[in-house]
Amino acid sequence: MADEGAKRHTLEDLLTVMARLRDPIAGCPWDVKQTFGTIAPYTIEEAGDLLLQVVYHAQMASEQKRFEFADVIEAITRKMIRRHPHVFADPKLKDEFLNADLWQRIKAEEKAERGMQGEVSRLDDVAVALPALTRAVKLQKRAGEVGFDWPSLSPVFAKAEEEIAELKAAISDRENGPDQDRAKQVAEEFGDLLFVMANIARHLGIDPEASLRDANAKFTRRFKSIEAALAAEGRKPEDSTLEEMDRLWDEAKAAESKD
User: Fold this and answer.
1) Residue ranges with strand state E in the chain
2) pTM
3) 150 contact partners, CB below 8 Å, separation of at least 6
């Protein structure tokens, strides 16, 4: 619980803080330039189902006498004020915020304070609720900050090839005698491969979640082209062969490349 003797921030205070951060003249340059598109990855990372999730967790915590919704508002408001000293304390700090990584330094100070309060790993504050690919990238980035990282893409690709070989071996073992342990091993090796692929994305500066969403959209678009082409002939996919659908897929792919 927050200190009962101190002035508690309200939801109105939090809204005021956000309005100040978004002020085109006196606000924070980073916050001012955000759009619904650019803020989306942070929304997914930070909020899940947005306010419902916050209220849900706050209610459960309140039932356990751990914290209340008002404490959530208090913590967020204080954090945003603390991390934007160039907005709420000294406008002269704006250049340092933009050029000297003031935000990261403040976060590092907060992390150090949490360390004194019992946090034992730099990975502890990487949210478990993140999408798995996004969390993999963040875990790798945190480890990389202390030098636990490959220096280039070449060894990462080598690791991917190693994981593919291990996955094939696990699949072969399962086919020779399927049981629960072998199935678990296949799933584990597949997870290792996905983790390495997330690492490749990180080294390339690619958001793996966005890339997969694009791949999903592309697959959906091309499969619908197959359905449409077959429907023009009075047929459905189940009435055609794999060879026919492959040909229609290639035609849809070729048509996209001309656009």
Assistant:
1) none
2) 0.61
3) 156, 159, 199, 203
